[in-house]
Amino acid sequence: MTDHDATGRTPLRLRIPADLETPVSAYLKLRDRGAAFLLESVEQGVQLGRYSFIGLGPCTEIRLRGDVVTVTRPDGAVEEHPAGDDIFAPVRAELARSAADLPAEMPGPFGGAVGVIGYDIVTRFEPVPLP
Q1: CA geometry: angle at 38 spanning 78 and 57, to 5°?
Q2: What is the largest CA-CA distance in the chain?
Q3: What is the pLDDT of residues 77-96, one digit of tens each?
């Protein structure tokens, strides 16, 4: 599937028979291209999952350090904002900005964000001591 939507993004779906390639072997072939991840829907006791997601090269990086949120775009542009009370507002804004119109035949789930949240972020929600 290669039709561009209004955002200029191209939804891509590829079916690969499991006897020719596994999600892990595909990921291992691609991970040397930079930041990458593999998300699998395989559950314990089952050999095949319904969905596998392999991602390469972040579109945007959003980091919180202290009370400053830094948004870094693929073109190198950097924006800094005070974190404020809603530290997830920049994530929601980025997801809204990068939403793609999906063809009806595209299966879900599609889209979203992948990231890491450290233990210290809990202090924004709960009064817990840091180690």
Answers
A1: 25
A2: 50
A3: 999 989 888 888 988 888 88
